[in-house]
Amino acid sequence: MNAHLAALLAQHTVRHVLLYSAFGHEPDPAGVRELWPAQYYLPRTEGLELRVHPLPAPLIKHPYGFLEPSPTAPQAEPGALEAVVLPGLAFDLRGYRLGYGQGFYDRFLPTVPQALWIGFIPQDLIVPALPTDPWDLPVHYLVSEQGVTACYSRTS
């Protein structure tokens, strides 16, 4: 999957990428760092918001068990991001995401309208359609082990 993600980033000449720290059964996008030269970032939860931290950064364990940057790590402005790689329990073919219900990415994505939004998900977790709420925003691309699927165009 990371090779497909790297190819998509290369196609769009993306140099500033927000990844996520995988936990549970989520696919891990960290391998893309070895495949495409860019500045990578990780999010950190603070209250109901996501903060953006450039890598490398000191990491601590989040209460849910995944690693996130320490509160003392340097922060970056979300406006620097050119791509956001998102986890999900499932995505649909339109690019809508089923998350974990806390709304972190629902609140964060409108702050980075300039970035490509990329769902990183195993193919068997891509479904024809998910129920949506008015605040849900579709990703532009889905990346799975089978390749890249375009979902939503900014011009559509």
UniProtKB/TrEMBL annotation:
Pfam family, one: 5-FTHF_cyc-lig
Highest taxon listed in the record's lineage: Bacteria
Keywords from the named record: ATP-binding, Ligase, Magnesium, Metal-binding, Nucleotide-binding
List of residues binding substrate: E26
Residues reported in the UniProt entry to bind ATP: R97, L98, G99, Y100, G101, Q102, G103, F104, Y105
A Gene Ontology BP annotation from the UniProt entry: tetrahydrofolate interconversion
InterPro entries per UniProt: FTHF_cligase (IPR002698), FTHF_cligase-like_sf (IPR024185), NagB/RpiA_transferase-like (IPR037171)
Catalytic activity: (6S)-5-formyl-5,6,7,8-tetrahydrofolate + ATP = (6R)-5,10-methenyltetrahydrofolate + ADP + phosphate
Gene Ontology molecular-function annotations: 5-formyltetrahydrofolate cyclo-ligase activity; ATP binding; metal ion binding
Annotated PANTHER family: 5-FORMYLTETRAHYDROFOLATE CYCLO-LIGASE, ATPASE INHIBITOR/5-FORMYLTETRAHYDROFOLATE CYCLO-LIGASE
Protein name from the UniProt record: 5-formyltetrahydrofolate cyclo-ligase
Source species: Calidithermus roseus
